[in-house]
Amino acid sequence: MNESVNKWIEEHLDDLIEDLKGFVSINSVQGSYEQGKPFGDGPFDALNFAIDLCDKYGFSVKNYNSYVGTADFDPELPRTLDMLCHCDVVPAGEGWTVTEPFKPVVKDGRIYGRGTSDDKGPLLCALYAMRAIKECGVPLKKGVRLIMGSDEETGSSDIEKYYAVEPEAEMTFSPDAEFPLINIEKGQFRAGIVKSFEESKTLPRLVSLEAGVAVNAVPQKAVITLEGLDMNMAEAPMDEVAKECGVTCEQTGMNEITVIGESAHASTPELGKNAGIAALMLVAKLPLPECEQIKAIKNVLKLFPYGVTDGSGLGIKMSDAESHDLTCTLDMFHITTTGLDLMFDSRTPLIATKENCEDVAGKSIESLGLEFESKGIVPPHAVPSDSEFVQKLLKSYETVTGLKGEAMAIGGGTYVHELKNGVAFGAVLPGVDTRMHGADEFFDLDNIVIATKVYAEAIIELCS
Fold first, then answer.
1. What residues act catalytically?
2. 64, 87 in Cβ contact below 8 A?
3. Handedness of CA 147, 153, 158, 162 (dihedral sign)
4. Burial class (CB in 10 A: 0-12, 13-18, 19+), 462
5. Cα–Cα distance between 333 and 193 in angstroms, integer?
6. Closest listed residue to residue 438, CA positions, set 20, 97, 87, 21
7. Are 255 and 230 in contact (CB under 8 A)?
8. Distance in angstroms (rounded) separating the CA atoms of residues 103 and 70
9. Distance (Å, rounded) from C-alpha 150 to C-alpha 44?
10. SS (H, E, C) the chain
11. Mind spelling out the 3-state secondary structure of 319-384?
């Protein structure tokens, strides 16, 4: 380790925190398109704040039409290492207690605010690592570039624009996840299940079932609307489903039942309680006459039994040593008296193919008289764990932290998913939930120091 660089980082923590406060104070949630501001005022202001900061600290900067900004350590050095970060944030949301989302505050060794850990704090860790090396006079033989996007949370069209005019660097890491290092991102298989049927006029009947806000999130809420049912007859089935699934079932209107479960990301569906599937179970248990609609619902439950998230109902359960288990979750529900329209999200290991995954799922769905709609599998992303790049990053992490470094696989996707030699590297330490995307998002000050030291060590290791 370079002790002068580490000492500089420790001595400049207050400066980093002040810069981060200014950065977080900018509400950079995606807004409406304006000429020259592709993602609205907030991302534009945040991107320019970051670019101006890099310029202030003596780096060569460039603005790519307000989609992306870059800062080069030394533009005369050969492009070797890119650090890919973003300035935009998810919406503020509700439930904040420590501070307001865009009024950052330092309390009990943490800085709170939207974007502190995703991804404004990590971006500044990377910038300050560059600054520490520069101001300590550590010579580099290879170039390092900080890339700052402004659309990571809503589609990453910023990076598409950037790489349309710039080549990938030899190596890229994104400080937009957690340590030690993520070298494998599973593939993504999303598909629809649809069915049209003749409307049943026989009462009682199901009028509608709605659940899900996004295909990549386990639904936390489902609403069932009925017609002609004595709601007293629903009490026992509601209690049964509530007990069996660990959800809440309440009558919320004269003919309405609301099921409340627990949301989770589609990459970790086992952490949620799927209100949509619980609602299907409840409908199947209600004293409703058999019809095409009810038959279709019961067939869906054969494909997606409650609590089963390994794809076995579809016949696609699989696993491999590197990327581990396939996950699968049914997340979007729209059922009426004349049709059913559902969507599921599966995260697929490296061994998944069209033949053993997509085709098998399609046959399972169609065998039950349902229709299958798919756009195929988004390929997984993998960088060999034994590559010199990955091993040097892990060595840097171990040197600074004293912790064991290992490459990991995840079901989610990061900024580097489309890059040939890109990995996610920090900035959050293992086992720490910084409440990214939630209320009271924070970043520990100790974590900020450690991450900055790790990035400085990695730059020196890779570019000297």
1. 88, 152
2. no
3. positive
4. buried
5. 10
6. 97
7. no
8. 26
9. 7
10. CCHHHHHHHHHCHHHHHHHHHHHHCCCCECCCCECCECCCHHHHHHHHHHHHHHHHCCCEEEEECCCEEEEECCCCCCEEEEEEEECCECCCCCCCCCCCCCCCEEECCEEECCCCCCCHHHHHHHHHHHHHHHHCCCCCCCEEEEEEECCHHHCCHHHHHHHHHCCCCCEEEECCEECCEEEEECEEEEEEEEEECCCCCCCCEEEEEEECCCCCEECCEEEEEEECCCHHHHHHHHHHHHHHHCCEEEEEECCEEEEECECEECCCHHHCECHHHHHHHHHHHCCCCCCHHHHHHHHHHHHCCCCCCCCHHHCCCCEECCCEECEEEEEEEEECCCEEEEEEEEEECCCCCHHHHHHHHHHHHHCCCCEEEEEEEECCEECCCCCHHHHHHHHHHHHHHCCCCCEEEECCCCCCCCCCCEEECCEECCCCCCCCCCCCCEEEHHHHHHHHHHHHHHHHHHHC
11. EECCCEECEEEEEEEEECCCEEEEEEEEEECCCCCHHHHHHHHHHHHHCCCCEEEEEEEECCEECC
Q: Which residue has the tokens 């030394």?
A: 74
Token representation of residue 129: 């690592």
Per-residue pLDDT of the chain (464 residues; tens, 9 = 90+): 899 999 999 999 999 999 999 999 999 999 999 999 999 999 999 999 999 999 999 999 999 999 999 999 999 999 999 999 999 999 998 889 999 999 999 999 999 999 999 999 999 999 999 999 999 999 999 999 999 999 999 889 999 999 999 999 999 999 999 999 999 999 999 999 999 999 999 999 999 999 998 898 899 999 999 999 999 999 999 999 999 999 999 999 999 999 999 988 899 999 999 999 999 999 999 999 999 999 999 999 999 999 999 999 999 999 999 999 999 999 999 999 999 999 999 999 999 999 999 999 999 999 999 999 999 999 999 999 999 999 999 999 999 999 999 999 999 888 899 999 999 999 999 999 999 888 899 999 999 999 999 999 999 999 99
The residues, any chain, with a CB within 8 Å of residue 317's CB and separated by 6 or more, are 310, 311, 325, 326
